[in-house]
Amino acid sequence: MQTKRANINTSLEISRESIDHAWTMPYAHFHNSYELYILTSGERIVSIDEEEYETLAGDVALFAPNHPHHSKGTTPFSGICVHFSGEFLKQYFGESARKHLLKCFNKHVIHLSAKQLAATQTIVDSFQPGSPFAFLKLGQLLEQITTALDTTQKEASLPHPYRQESKASLILAYVKENYVFIQTVEELATRFQVSEGYIYRIFRETLGTTPKEYINHLRLEHIIHRLRYSDKPIKTIAAQGGFSCYEYFIRLFKEKEGCTPGEYRRRLRQPTS
């Protein structure tokens, strides 16, 4: 899987997301901030430094700066994402307090009890971006997770996905995780040392579609996710989602959603009555 650096220029950011379909990130990424991902519903497979972990509702995945990570799953899910910089923490907390609050990052996955998860969500609900007391909310959040550190039994990594799977399963898993970058069926055939006919057959028999149709489906799902949670220009999102031809992307999007990407984004942001 390819890895990208993500530029996160924020001192502290807390956001919620709710995804009503299965979704796999198209590449691993890393950044110079700390990140917490608190899963509130659904299931995700989280990869950190090439180790995979099964996470369920109530689990917190912890990503230290500059550690590649990635997630995938086959169910709808929701969660809370927290990014904060080491400089932000240093601005408000002394060395001893910082060491204590960051102790939770000694693990990759920590499980919160129902009571701890409820307390965590209460803290997030009361968070106000830009507030001079925002650092207190971050401290409370980290304290909840650090407290769970002593009782959690999470973090058993899953077997590596390439150890015992069939070649067909490996090809399908590879496509699901690299759909942004794959250009041709020939590329897949060469990588896995099979014929192009074999590639077409496993897609037809397993998914009832062609490789190109499946890749376009994954790309469109990814772009829909980005339209909902990103403010980047639509052309940029389309290109980063794997579409080199913007007109072709627009046509496929309209076939799927019945409107243009711009109209789709505007509908999402219309206030609900």
What order do the helices and strands come in, and which of them pair?
Layout: E1 3-5, E2 12-19, E3 28-30, E4 34-41, E5 43-48, E6 51-56, E7 59-63, E8 69-72, E9 77-84, H1 86-92, H2 95-101, E10 109-111, H3 114-125, H4 134-149, H5 167-178, H6 185-192, H7 196-207, H8 211-229, H9 234-240, H10 246-257, H11 261-268
Parallel strand pairs: 1-3
Antiparallel strand pairs: 2-9, 4-7, 4-9, 5-6, 5-8, 7-10
Helix pairs in contact: 3-4, 6-7
Folded structure, characterized:
The chain has 273 residues and is α+β, with helices and mostly antiparallel strands. It has two domains: 3-149, Jelly Rolls, CATH 2.60.120; 167-268, Homeodomain-like (Arc Repressor Mutant, subunit A, Orthogonal Bundle). 44% of the residues lie in helices and 20% in strands. The protein has eleven helices and ten strands. The protein has a five-stranded antiparallel β-sheet. Helix 3 packs antiparallel against helix 4 and helix 6 crosses helix 7 (196-207). The longest helix is centred in the last third of the chain and has 19 residues, at 211-229. 29% of the residues are buried. Mean pLDDT is 87; it is low at 160-164.
What does the main sheet amount to? 5 strands, antiparallel
- Uncertain residue ranges: 160-164
- Determine the N-to-C terminus distance: 43 Å
Tally of individual domains: 2
Strand order of the largest sheet: 2-9-4-7-10
Name given to the CATH architecture of the largest domain: Sandwich
Beta-strand content bin: 15-25%
The structure class reads alpha+beta
